[in-house]
Specification:
binds 5'-O-[hydroxy(phenylacetyl)phosphoryl]adenosine, about 30% helix, nine-stranded mixed β-sheet, 12 helices, alpha/beta
């Protein structure tokens, strides 16, 4: 399929919504619904989860203290270590016979965090994921190539059941086996590609190596998430595949993918589904809620979760919210692109740097392929950052060219981010390729 044919087969301009009444609900009605559901959720948490009964008692609040949405700020936060401390099922608010599924996130150290779902939770997740995919431009009848990993990770099954709920035809390919994926992308002609952005990039590159121009593949929507990515990476994926790349967000502690998703109308921030969640942004230091529009840590409260209600869960994700109306007509507030996690933030000679800023400076730079790794080391008491970047195929003929490109990148990073770092420009194919969530940072600080 040529890019021109693809564009003609587009559904651009239609205003399909899966649940128009919910998605365009006037904000005062939305807030009234939130209050009603929040009262239920706090009561359910307190009555059925010994963890929350203790946490509320320690904070000196009861579910009855919530009279308005503003009262939520009187309730305690929940953090990831609460799940670890109560491993595996200690925070659940339903009995075992009501559970239908478990997922878990691997975590870098020790035990994973385990989350559980009732049948009702699974149904609502599929509904919200279907709503998200429709907002991103998927339509009933579309073939969906689902390259999110299947298993304990919520990406694969989350997108799978959402796509089925929307009425799509799912190709449950999972991650890996990249050459086979290219064959199936050609043969099954999907309209929608679901993957992490880094794996989508890997797919595009592998296609080119197999002599297939990814822009000639049939995919016209990419539903990409599960890791931080930049506008520059979006532009690169749009260009390589000739598609519209749309950002989707979620986390297993809250549900999985589909907590928020961009619409393909504006692609300016992700609609957070406020009929099922309350979103706050707090200052991570003072823990005080910040006014709309200010940047800080995203905190999410679930309104309808049965098995694992979450009260004021600190996501560690850094973003800001906007309630300005969106061109698509949806009334739910928008979460701006997640710039990173506060635990991913690096402090390099006093400058705060997120990996996504480095990505924004590298992707699209002349002579570079969009693959990189950040290496953190310690010199004395200072953290230092060096970059391993990759030259584009044909961009460097000799070592001198690689040295010149490295110097240009160093200059660019200094100009755009304000930090000095060492840069190694490596030959094409040297940086490890992603199969799922990309490992952007090699932290050598603890190793010596
Ligand atoms: O990554 C769920 C998911 C699957 C989302 C597929 C989107 C698509 P976890 O493995 O629990 O769940 O990881 C959650 O990943 O707190 C963020 O730090 C990060 N993350 C997820 N989506 C985005 C995104 C899934 N769109 C953690 N942008 C979250 C930036 C994201 N970071």
């Amino acid at each position: 399929m040529t890019v021109a044919e693809k564009t003609r087969s587009e559904t651009a301009g239609d205003d399909f919504m899966l649940d128009r009444a919910a998605e365009t609900m006037p904000r005062d009605k939305l807030r009234a619904l939130q209050l009603e559901r929040l009262k239920w959720s706090l009561r359910h948490a307190c009555d059925n989860s010994p963890f929350y009964a203790r946490a509320f008692a320690a904070a000196g609040v009861t579910a009855d203290d919530l009279k308005s949405l503003d009262d939520l700020r009187r309730f305690p936060f929940t953090v990831k270590t609460d799940l670890r401390d109560t491993y595996p099922f200690g925070m659940f608010a339903v009995s075992r016979d009501n559970l239908r599924r478990l997922h878990a996130s691997s975590g870098t150290t020790g035990k994973p965090t385990v989350v559980g779902y009732t049948q009702g939770d699974l149904d609502r997740w599929a509904d919200l994921m279907a709503r998200s995919m429709a907002a991103a431009g998927a339509r009933p009848g579309d073939v969906v190539h689902n390259a999110y990993g299947y298993g304990l990770f919520t990406g694969g099954l989350g997108a799978h059941y959402g796509a089925e709920r929307l009425g799509c035809i799912v190709v449950p390919i999972s991650g890996g086996g990249t050459e086979r994926q290219i064959m199936l992308l050609q043969d099954f002609a999907p309209r929608v590609l679901c993957a992490t952005p880094s794996y989508a990039l890997n797919l595009a590159e592998s296609a080119m190596q197999m002599g297939v121009d990814p822009a000639t593949l049939s995919v016209s929507r990419g539903i990409f998430g599960a890791e931080p990515w930049s506008e520059e990476m979006r532009a690169e994926l749009d260009r390589l595949f000739g598609l519209k790349a749309v950002d989707i967000y979620g986390l297993s502690e809250i549900m999985g993918p589909g907590v928020a998703c961009e619409c393909d109308h504006s692609r300016e921030g992700l609609h957070g589904w406020e009929d099922h969640f309350i979103f706050e942004v707090i200052d991570p230091e003072t823990k005080e809620p910040l006014p709309m529009g200010e940047s800080g840590e995203l905190v999410i409260t679930t309104l309808t979760k049965e098995a694992l209600p979450m009260v004021r869960y600190r996501t560690r994700d850094i973003t800001r919210l906007t309630d300005e109306p969106c061109t698509c007509g949806r009334t739910h507030l928008r979460i701006q692109r997640i710039t990173g996690r506060d635990d991913d933030m690096m402090i390099i000679r006093g400058v705060n740097v997120y990996p996504s800023q480095v990505e924004a400076a590298l992707v699209g730079a002349p002579g570079l392929a969009p693959h990189y790794q950040i290496v953190l080391e310690r010199e004395g008491v200072m953290d230092t950052m060096s970059l391993e970047v990759e030259v584009a195929v044909g961009a460097a003929e000799c070592e001198d060219d690689q040295i010149r490109i490295a110097a240009e990148v160093r200059h660019r990073i200094k100009g755009l981010i304000g930090v000095t770092c060492k840069v190694r420009a490596l030959a094409p194919g040297s940086v490890p390729r992603s199969q799922g969530k990309a490992v952007r940072v090699k932290d050598m600080r603890k190793k010596g």
